[in-house]
Design a protein that fits this description.
The chain is α/β, with parallel strands linked by helices. It has nine helices and eleven strands. It has one domain: Collagenase (Catalytic Domain). Bound molecules: zinc ion.
């Protein structure tokens, strides 16, 4: 099926408008210690800004397990800025970590098995739920490959094992090392009409390092039904899902309009060499 240029323009406009609202509503909740430890809990709560400062702390500590081509690998060079800080070639290429602060970058550790669970609103038609499930799984498998992280899908991965996203589920705190993904019907008042995704992350701070403990992410069905079909490396439902899920794997927005992590996804967006380097860094935290 081919689209007329007019159709394509209209579609692109709609997608641009939709994705412009994507920055909204990401909150990170930080814990100073796990329960049972001496330090006080819930000391930090701050906005998940998606424009973390620099990849250089991750590059310095990095134990990259993904094989990178030269275009991506050369972006891992770092330079002193003169004030004791470092800037990386990757920062200059426009890529940002989702969170980097005095605790360094927020990254999942390599030895952690990250369990993902897919919950879908029962109000969404069964055929669409099946497509959402398969697109989400396919994106998770791509992110697993691109980061080298140990990502597995447990709940909600098949029709027989379907899990519905209930009101209680959508506000519950996932267990340790779980990413709970909720597909919410766009008619549901839980999400604002302009809101495409909202994530809450719980993090652990230990020895000056921060690691995610669990994550809950809500994806609006409008994210799914506005996009054309397609693969992860061009404009598609899968690329939009990859954009959202990459945030909870530690990647913020890119300043490069060609990147799938740019706040507005366009027809020529792709996973650029800088995005591949960032994804490899997202999986570079040694245990
Ligand atoms: Zn985003």
């Amino acid at each position: 099926m081919t689209r007329s240029p007019e159709d394509r323009r209209r579609l692109l406009k709609r997608i641009s408008l939709l994705l412009a609202g994507i920055v909204a509503g990401l909150v990170l909740v930080g814990f100073l210690a796990r329960p049972g430890q001496k330090e006080p809990e819930v000391a930090l709560r701050y906005n998940f800004t998606l424009d973390g400062k620099s990849w250089s702390p991750a590059i310095k500590e990095g134990n990259i397990r993904v094989e990178l081509d030269w275009d991506a690998a050369k972006l891992l060079a770092t330079y002193p800025t003169g004030s004791g800080n470092f800037i990386s070639e990757l920062d200059l290429a426009g890529s940002n970590p989702s969170v980097s602060n005095r605790f360094g970058n927020l990254l999942w550790p390599q030895c952690t098995r990250i369990t993902t669970e897919i919950f879908i609103d029962q109000d969404i038609p069964a055929a669409t739920r099946a497509q959402m499930r398969s697109a989400t799984i396919s994106v998770l498998l791509s992110l697993k490959e691109l980061t080298g992280l140990d990502v597995v899908v447990t709940k909600g991965s098949s029709e027989r094992g379907e899990e519905f996203s209930t009101a209680a589920q959508r506000i519950s705190t996932p267990g340790d090392n779980i990413i709970a993904i909720h597909w919410v019907d766009k008619e549901n008042t839980l999400m604002r009409p302009s809101e495409l995704a909202a994530a809450t992350m719980w993090a652990t701070h230990k020895r000056g390092q921060q690691t995610p403990r669990s994550t809950r992410i809500r994806l609006s069905s409008s994210l799914f039904d506005t996009m054309p079909e397609g693969e992860i490396d061009r404009l598609s439902k899968k690329m939009a899902i990859a954009h959202e899920l990459s945030h909870v794997f530690g990647i913020g927005h890119s300043n490069n309009p060609d990147s799938y992590m740019y706040p507005v996804i366009a027809l020529n967006s792709s996973i650029t060499p800088a995005d591949r380097a960032a994804l490899a860094l997202a999986g570079s935290r040694a245990c």
